[in-house]
């Protein structure tokens, strides 16, 4: 039996240039694993606590030396000597050591860095790829090269992810699940570059957002959707056949005084009016998904929208659900949505994340494994998504290294599986 020999955390930078935590674990048989933890800009109010130093003299208060110290001085004492193959035991130790409801004593970033590193160490000790380890450990079907998660490409970044003036946070292009991952990646890359040409032709001033998509200055959110439609029409692909459109509304970010204020409509809208606006968008564009269409506590509005169009598309809970089993149970009871966005750092351990995924699958929810806007160049989420049999992955645009690293890993996994299951 392997045992964990050492646990060490240090401070590194994420894709936004902000500090984050990276933890390295070693076993007594010379296997090692490293995990670095992302950070979100648009966060749900019920996410697990991300510990920052709040020291204005370092990184504007965003340092994570406290979280690193919690790993090195507290958590490591309980994890050294544990069997890396016993993930549930490790995660329970982490939860017991923290003892708080939202992981505020040690920090969810500190806890997840250890949980994830130990999970990857378990795969290394088992001498199998992480995606195979995840499937075997938690009882998911083995991966197939023709049934990998479909990518959701965030080609236009708005809201807190962009530097432009769009209210909605993300504007998606989603290849048909009938296509292989490699074909989907090719499609996403081609449309990404074609969209840039369209923006230049229209003289739509644009920067690149946190997640690799373009962040143009446009008059309205509908204009951004029309840009994607125009880009697709200029490509060899057919909308609503080869690919579909999706939106991350992130409505909590522009919900004030009980109403929603967006550039498309002159006056702030009630929840009912916002729902009607989204129903009209779906009628016009046949959307595949709408994420966070309302504020994260506006349960009745979620229920009404789902009753109206829930059979036509995915209504995705991110800020609503925050990868939290109790929140998902409430959403199931209320019939509020039919898809869950999975972000391990919202909850803080691998075991808790898997429990949410299993509950979602049991209730026929679509499962989407997601990055964060402040991410790192590691590719763990690609393996994790394949291992748990996710329906989709949301890793941003096919640009910026921290996004591409995950797409490239999925590409490798497809090729690896094809080599094991040749067609001829």
TrEMBL record:
<dbReference type="InterPro" id="IPR020810">
    <property type="entry name" value="Enolase_C"/>
</dbReference>
<dbReference type="GO" id="GO:0000287">
    <property type="term" value="F:magnesium ion binding"/>
</dbReference>
<feature type="binding site">
    <location>
        <position position="291"/>
    </location>
    <ligand>
        <name>Mg(2+)</name>
    </ligand>
</feature>
<feature type="domain" description="Enolase C-terminal TIM barrel">
    <location>
        <begin position="145"/>
        <end position="423"/>
    </location>
</feature>
<dbReference type="GO" id="GO:0009986">
    <property type="term" value="C:cell surface"/>
</dbReference>
<feature type="binding site">
    <location>
        <position position="291"/>
    </location>
    <ligand>
        <name>substrate</name>
    </ligand>
</feature>
<feature type="binding site">
    <location>
        <position position="318"/>
    </location>
    <ligand>
        <name>Mg(2+)</name>
    </ligand>
</feature>
<dbReference type="Pfam" id="PF03952">
    <property type="entry name" value="Enolase_N"/>
</dbReference>
<dbReference type="InterPro" id="IPR020809">
    <property type="entry name" value="Enolase_CS"/>
</dbReference>
<dbReference type="GO" id="GO:0004634">
    <property type="term" value="F:phosphopyruvate hydratase activity"/>
</dbReference>
<keyword id="KW-0456">Lyase</keyword>
<feature type="active site" description="Proton donor">
    <location>
        <position position="211"/>
    </location>
</feature>
<keyword id="KW-0324">Glycolysis</keyword>
<keyword id="KW-0964">Secreted</keyword>
<dbReference type="GO" id="GO:0000015">
    <property type="term" value="C:phosphopyruvate hydratase complex"/>
</dbReference>
<feature type="binding site">
    <location>
        <position position="161"/>
    </location>
    <ligand>
        <name>substrate</name>
    </ligand>
</feature>
<feature type="binding site">
    <location>
        <position position="169"/>
    </location>
    <ligand>
        <name>(2R)-2-phosphoglycerate</name>
    </ligand>
</feature>
<keyword id="KW-0479">Metal-binding</keyword>
<feature type="binding site">
    <location>
        <position position="318"/>
    </location>
    <ligand>
        <name>substrate</name>
    </ligand>
</feature>
<feature type="binding site">
    <location>
        <position position="373"/>
    </location>
    <ligand>
        <name>(2R)-2-phosphoglycerate</name>
    </ligand>
</feature>
<feature type="binding site">
    <location>
        <position position="394"/>
    </location>
    <ligand>
        <name>substrate</name>
    </ligand>
</feature>
<protein>
    <recommendedName>
        <fullName>Enolase</fullName>
        <ecNumber>4.2.1.11</ecNumber>
    </recommendedName>
</protein>
<feature type="binding site">
    <location>
        <begin position="370"/>
        <end position="373"/>
    </location>
    <ligand>
        <name>substrate</name>
    </ligand>
</feature>
<comment type="pathway">
    <text>Carbohydrate degradation; glycolysis; pyruvate from D-glyceraldehyde 3-phosphate: step 4/5.</text>
</comment>
<keyword id="KW-0963">Cytoplasm</keyword>
<comment type="function">
    <text>Catalyzes the reversible conversion of 2-phosphoglycerate (2-PG) into phosphoenolpyruvate (PEP). It is essential for the degradation of carbohydrates via glycolysis.</text>
</comment>
<dbReference type="InterPro" id="IPR036849">
    <property type="entry name" value="Enolase-like_C_sf"/>
</dbReference>
<dbReference type="Pfam" id="PF00113">
    <property type="entry name" value="Enolase_C"/>
</dbReference>
<feature type="binding site">
    <location>
        <position position="248"/>
    </location>
    <ligand>
        <name>Mg(2+)</name>
    </ligand>
</feature>
<keyword id="KW-0460">Magnesium</keyword>
<comment type="similarity">
    <text>Belongs to the enolase family.</text>
</comment>
<feature type="binding site">
    <location>
        <position position="170"/>
    </location>
    <ligand>
        <name>substrate</name>
    </ligand>
</feature>
<feature type="binding site">
    <location>
        <position position="394"/>
    </location>
    <ligand>
        <name>(2R)-2-phosphoglycerate</name>
    </ligand>
</feature>
<feature type="binding site">
    <location>
        <position position="343"/>
    </location>
    <ligand>
        <name>(2R)-2-phosphoglycerate</name>
    </ligand>
</feature>
<dbReference type="GO" id="GO:0006096">
    <property type="term" value="P:glycolytic process"/>
</dbReference>
<dbReference type="GO" id="GO:0005576">
    <property type="term" value="C:extracellular region"/>
</dbReference>
<feature type="active site" description="Proton acceptor">
    <location>
        <position position="343"/>
    </location>
</feature>
<dbReference type="InterPro" id="IPR020811">
    <property type="entry name" value="Enolase_N"/>
</dbReference>
<dbReference type="InterPro" id="IPR000941">
    <property type="entry name" value="Enolase"/>
</dbReference>
<feature type="binding site">
    <location>
        <position position="372"/>
    </location>
    <ligand>
        <name>(2R)-2-phosphoglycerate</name>
    </ligand>
</feature>
<feature type="domain" description="Enolase N-terminal">
    <location>
        <begin position="4"/>
        <end position="134"/>
    </location>
</feature>
<dbReference type="InterPro" id="IPR029017">
    <property type="entry name" value="Enolase-like_N"/>
</dbReference>
């Amino acid at each position: 039996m392997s045992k964990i020999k050492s646990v060490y955390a240090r401070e590194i930078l994420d894709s936004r240039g902000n500090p984050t935590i990276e933890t390295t674990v070693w076993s007594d048989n010379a296997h090692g694993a490293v995990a670095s933890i992302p950070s979100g800009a648009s966060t749900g109010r019920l996410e697990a606590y991300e510990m920052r130093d709040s020291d204005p003299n370092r990184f504007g208060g965003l340092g994570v030396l406290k979280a690193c110290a919690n790993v090195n001085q507290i958590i490591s004492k309980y994890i050294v000597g544990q069997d890396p193959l016993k993930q549930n035991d490790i995660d329970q130790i982490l939860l017991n050591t923290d003892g708080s409801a939202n992981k505020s004593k040690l920090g969810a970033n500190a806890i997840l860095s250890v949980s994830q590193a130990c999970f990857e160490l378990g795969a290394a000790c088992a001498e199998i790829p992480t995606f195979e380890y995840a499937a075997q450990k938690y009882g998911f079907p083995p991966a197939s090269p023709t049934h990998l998660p479909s990518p959701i490409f965030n080609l236009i970044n708005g809201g807190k992810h962009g530097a432009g003036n769009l209210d909605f946070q993300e504007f998606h292009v989603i290849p048909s699940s009938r296509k292989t991952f490699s074909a989907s990646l090719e499609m996403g890359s081609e449309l990404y570059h074609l969209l840039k040409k369209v923006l230049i032709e229209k003289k739509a001033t644009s920067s690149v957002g946190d997640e690799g998509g373009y962040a143009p200055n446009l008059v309205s959110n509908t204009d951004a959707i029309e840009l994607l439609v125009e880009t697709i029409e200029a490509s060899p692909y057919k909308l609503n056949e080869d690919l579909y459109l999706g939106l991350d509304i992130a409505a909590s970010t522009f919900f004030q005084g009980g109403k929603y204020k967006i550039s498309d409509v002159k006056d702030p809208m009630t929840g009912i009016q916002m729902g009607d606006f989204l129903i009209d968008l779906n009628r016009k564009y046949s959307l595949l998904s709408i994420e966070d269409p309302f504020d994260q506590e506006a349960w009745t509005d979620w229920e009404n929208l789902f009753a109206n169009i829930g059979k036509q598309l995915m209504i995705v809970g991110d800020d609503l659900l925050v990868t939290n089993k109790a929140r998902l149970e409430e959403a199931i009871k209320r019939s509020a949505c039919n898809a869950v966005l999975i972000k391990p750092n919202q909850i803080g351990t691998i075991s808790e994340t898997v429990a949410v995924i299993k509950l979602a699958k049991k209730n026929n929810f679509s499962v989407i494994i997601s990055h964060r806007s402040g991410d790192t160049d590691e590719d763990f989420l690609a393996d994790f998504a394949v291992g748990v049999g996710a329906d989709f992955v949301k890793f941003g645009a096919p640009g910026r290294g921290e996004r591409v690293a995950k797409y490239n890993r999925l590409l490798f996994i497809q090729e690896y599986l094809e080599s094991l299951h040749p067609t001829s």
